[in-house]
Amino acid sequence: MLIVFVALLLFHGSSKISCSTLPDNSTDVLSLLALKAANDPTGVLNSWNSSTNHCMWKGVQCSLTHKGRITALQLSGNKLVGSISSSLGNLTFLRTLDLSANRLSGELPSISHLHRLEILNLSSNVLQGSIPVSIANCSNLRILDLSRNYLDGEIPHGVGLLYNLSVLQLSRNNLTGNIPPILSNITSLETFDLTENHFLGSIPHGFGKLPYITWLSLGQNNLSGSIPKDLFSLTSLKGLSLEMNMLTGTLPSDIGNTLSNIEQISLGGNMLEGGIPPSIGNATRLSLVDFSSNSFSGEIPSSFGKLSLLNELNLEANNLEARDNHSWEFINTLGNCKNLEMLSVYNNQLHGVIPSSIGNLSSGLQQLYLGFNNLSGNVSPGIGNLRQLNTLELNGNSLTGTVENWIGNLTQMQQLILFQNNHLAVLNLSHNSLSGNIPTTLDDLQSLTMLDLSYNRLQGEIPTTGVFENATAVSLNGNNMSGQLPADIGLSKLSYLAVANNKLTGPIPPSIGRLQDSLLEMLLLNNQLSGCLPHELGMLHKATVIDAGMNQLTGPIPSSFSCLSSVEQLNLASNRLYGQVPDALCKLAGPAGRLANLTLSGNYFTSVGQACAALIKDGVMDVKNNCIPGLANQRRPAECAAFQSEPKNTCPAASTPVTCPAAAAMGAVAPGERKAAREYSSYVTYATLHE
User: Fold this and answer.
1) Please, is 47 exposed, middle or buried when counting C-beta atoms within 10 Å of its C-beta (0-12, 13-18, 19+)?
2) Is residue 395 part of a domain?
3) Quick one: which of 130, 136, 52, 122 has its CA closest to 88?
4) Where does the signal peptide begin and end (predicted)?
5) CA–CA separation, 344 vs 320, rounded Å?
6) Which residues of 59-76 are buried (b: 16+ CB within 10 A; e: fewer)?
7) Minimum mean pLDDT among 100-109, 125-134, 469-478, 628-637: which range?
8) Distance CA 85, CA 318 (A)
9) Residue 428 exposed, middle or buried by CB count within 10 Å (0-12, 13-18, 19+)
10) Residue 330 φ then ψ, to 5°
11) How far apart are CA 516 and CA 338, in angstroms?
C-alpha cells in the first residue's frame, strides 16, 4: 500500500515535473514520505511533495557527490508525533539526524545500518524503552544526544565502543544501573552528561584520564563513594557537576591549582566533609561555586575574594564558622568580586554582628541569604548599598534593634538614587528580636512581593501604606502589633496574609471583599478582633484558608459564607458567634465545595441543620463548647443563658439573600466526593506558624 501511496504522490501534478526532479535513489524519497505519513499529522511537512526535488524539501540536505542521497535530516521543533518511522534506517548516507524538541514517542528505531551517521539528536521528546545495543554499529558518531526523554534500562556497553564521540548527552531520563567503566575509553569525549537519572554505584576512576573533557555532569543520581582524585586533575575541565548524590570524602588541598580552567563547580547536596581548601581562590576562572548542603566545616576561605569572575557562591546548609574578625574576613574580600549576584551562607554557624563591609559587596548583588545562623546585634546599614537586591533573608537569627535603623536607610537610598535600589522582591527577617515600628517607607520598595517579619518584637499599628502596597504575601505573625487592620486592605494585591498571635483590635474591614480574585489564605488567629463577621468575607471564593479563631468576633455566620467554594480550612473557634450554623456552609464539604475542616468550637451557636449534623458525625466539623441542645460537650445551660441575655451588636441576618461571584463554583469537587484534609503545614500561612 505504501508503494501505491508514494506512486500516487509522485504522479500528482506530473505534467509540471521534468525528469530532472526525480531522485537517483528512490529509497531515500520513500523513507521520507513514510516519515511524513507516520509522524506529521499537523501538515508541517506539506512542502514534501513531488512538485519539488526532495533535496529542496524542508530540513533535507543531499550529498554533492552522490546525487539524490540524503546526508542530513534536521526537523527540530516541528510538532512531529508518534513512533519514529523505521524507514529512517534506510537512509544509509545520513550523517546528521536531528528530530529533537518534538513529541515523538515509542522506542528508538533501529539505526544499525547508518554507518555514516555522525550526529544523532533525539532530545526533548517522549521516547521510551532502552538504548539499543545496535547503536555500537554507528561507529562514526561524534554527537549522541538522547536527553530529556523517558529512556530506561542500563547504558549498553557498546556505547563505550563509539571512540569518535565528543558529546554524550543522556541527561533527564530514567536510566539505571552503574555507569559503565568502559565509557572512560572514549578519549575524545568533551561533554559527558548523565544528570537526572537513577545511576548507582561509584564514579569510574577512568574518567580522570579523559584528556579533552570540558563538561562532566553526573548530578542528581544515586552515586556513592568518594570522588576519584584524578577528576580534580583534569586541566581541561570547565564544568564539574556532581550535585545531589551521596558522595563522601574531602576535597583535595590543591583543588584550585589542578582545576586551572574550571568555570563552574557544583557539589551541593552530598555528604562531603572537611574544610574548603584555600587554594580554591587560585581557580580564577570560576563563576559558579555550589558547595551547599554538605558537612563542610571550618572557616570560609577569604581567598574566594580572588575570584573576580565569581557570579554565584552557594555555601548554605553546612557547618562553616565565623566567630571573630579573622573568620569574617571572607565578607571583606568578597567585595572584590564585582560580578557577584548571589551569595548564600544560610544555615551555618556564623556568629556575632554582621560586618559593616557587607555594604561593600557587589552593587549588582541580587540575592543575599544569611538566615538561620547565630547573628546578633543591629543589622548593618551598609546593606542599603546593595541596590539590586531582590531577595534578602536574615530570618532565624538573634538580630536586635529597630527596623527603621537600616531598612529606612535602604529606602532613603532609593529616593536619592532614582529608584535604582527598588528591586527587593523578598524580604525575610522572621525569627529575630527586631523591635520598633514597621516603617511606612516600605512602600518605596516597588518590587516587594514577599514580606516576612514574623516572630520579632515589632509593635505599633500596621502601616496603612507600605506593608500592603505591593506585596502579595505578608507575614507578621508573633509580634506585638496593635491597632486595627488597615481599612483599605482591599486595595492591596494580597494572596497570603498572616497576622496571627498579635494584639490587633477592631473589625475585619469590609474592603476585604475586594480581594475576591486574589486572596488565597488569611490567618487572623489569636488577636482581639471584634465586631460582626462582614458579609464581604464570604465573597473570597478563591480562599482555601480563613482562620479567625481566638478573637472576639460576634454575630451569626453570614449567608455569604455559602460562596466560599474553595475553602478547605475554616476556623472561627473561640469567638462570640451565635445563632444557627448555616446548612449551606456545611454543604461546602460535599459537591458544592472543598471544605475539609470546619472548626466552630468555643462559641454560642444554638442549632445545626441536617448537613452540619452529618459533618459532626464524620469528624469534619467541631462544635464543642457551644449551646446546641442534644450534642455532647456543650456549655453549661447557665453560661448559655447568661450570654443570650447580653446586649448584642446589630449584625446582618444570617438568612440575608446572597449572590455569589460568578467563578465561585470553580472550586467544587465532583459529585459524591469529599475533599480530603491536608496537613496544616502544606498551607503557606499555617507553615509560617511553625517555621
Assistant:
1) middle
2) no
3) 122
4) 1-19
5) 12
6) bbbbbeeeebbbbbbbbe
7) 469-478
8) 51
9) buried
10) -60, -35
11) 45
**73 falls within a domain:** yes
Overall average pLDDT of the 151-159 stretch? 96
Domain count, the chain: 1
Residues 348-357: tens digit of each pLDDT: 999 999 999 9
- Asked if residue 305 lies in contact with residue 336, where contact means CB atoms within 8 angstroms, the answer is yes
- Asked if 188 and 211 touch (Cβ cutoff 8 Å), the reply is no
Residue 282 DSSP code: G
Q: Which of 511, 513, 441 is nearest to 661 (CA)?
A: 513
Is 547 a domain residue? no
Identify the pLDDT of residue 677: 60
pLDDT tier at 540, thresholds 50, 70, 90: very high
Burial of 447 (0-12, 13-18, 19+ CB in 10 A): middle
Separation CA 336–CA 354 (nearest Å): 18
Residues 6+ apart with CB under 8 A from 662: none
pLDDT value at residue 521: 95
Task: Give me the pLDDT at residue 115, please.
Answer: 94
Cell of 294: 554538605
Q: Is 382 exposed, middle or buried (0-12, 13-18, 19+ CB in 10 A)?
A: middle
Instruction: Please state, in angstroms and rounded to a whole number, the distance separating the CA atoms of residues 116 and 94.
Output: 6
Beta bridge partners of 531: 553
Residue 407 lies in a domain: no
Give residue 94's domain range. Answer: 23-129
What is the tens place of the pLDDT at every residue in 114-151?
Answer: 999 999 999 999 999 999 999 999 999 999 999 999 99
Here the cell at position 648 is 448584642
Cα gap 502→562, rounded to integer Å: 29
641's enclosing H/E stretch is helix 637-645
pLDDT in tens, 92-123: 999 999 999 999 999 998 888 999 999 999 99
Q: Which residues pair with 61 in a beta bridge?
A: 72
For residue 469, give the C-alpha cell: 502596597
Joined grid coordinates for residue 215:
563538561
CA 36 – CA 45 distance, rounded (Å): 7
The pLDDT tens digits for 30-42 are 999 999 999 999 9
What's residue 415's pLDDT?
22
Read off the CATH number of the domain in which 33 is found.
3.80.10.10
Verdict on whether the full-model pTM lies above 0.85: no
Query: Cβ distance 207 to 184 under 8 Å?
Result: yes
